[in-house]
What does this fold into?
Amino acid sequence: NTLHVIYYEQVDGEWNLFYVHRDMDDVWSNPEVVFTNPWWSGDACIVVDPNQNYIRVYVTLSGELYEIERVAANNWLAGTISTGTADIQSIDVDTDSYGNIHIAGLTGNMADQAKIIYVTDFNGVWGYDVMMDSDLGDFGLGANPRITVSDEGIVVMGYRGGNYLMYDIHIAQNQVPGEFNWMYEVILSPNYESYCAYPLIVGDTLHLTYSGQDGWGWPWTTYYTSRPLSGTNWIGTQAVSGNFSLNESRMSVDLEGNIHVVMIEIDGNFATGHLYYSTNASGTWVASNPFGAIAEWDNPSFTIDHAGNFQFLRLSVFFDGGLMWGIVHLGAPFEM
It folds into this structure.
């Protein structure tokens, strides 16, 4: 039940990546500097594996991929990971039950269009695969791939595929852990276009949320669907956003199998900063804004701890004497 957090902060003109954690007594540790860089990176992911006893951070800097491991308090060891490209970005990271690392990202210099790149140490050494069959269109660097990995190491990626005005959610899945033989599928949405996939493997089930709309300024609808990890038949498509215009979903599944989704409100094509929550715990999807008028929820991170409590992090914007940014934690339980 320890909450681990990384965040960027600009100090004396340079960007520092900090690490903090909060224990079960709700006490936050002192921030540790993971690394310092004069340029803003934006891509950073943390992996915590209690079984393998490691905390690792993965970042992209100037198109290169780095692994930074916490050796001890305030002691971080960095190294580069060869990916065959000098242009990797928009990474997402997950781990299997053996502690192997699986990374999804984008590369723009390996083909005429951007492609998904997959990086893993599953076979004991770092390997990578530029997925040439991933169809990302003319603006593929906005595909925003998300990765989820089963306990055994089966990988599923969800991302925006297709081309402008014809975007759909695409899924890529390998059949054998550690191998680069991919099965691709397109998720047909009730809307004209779809964006913002969030896949999540829990046990033998692949859960998926994504958002869609029918054109510029039209309301956004967020959907949920699922299928067996080893199957191909999706089980229904359920709207989880109610009568609200919501996208950029984050999803978690509790120990009872209930689905919990957090989304951002969109007015036209602009985020209002309001955060909404939806769950099927009652047997039907119920969407609400349990946080009231709390505004400026930007890039929310969301998880459920082992006690069933909700934990949120958000990037907040303040306008007190100028533009200020801050990270705000909101712990739970909430009455939802």
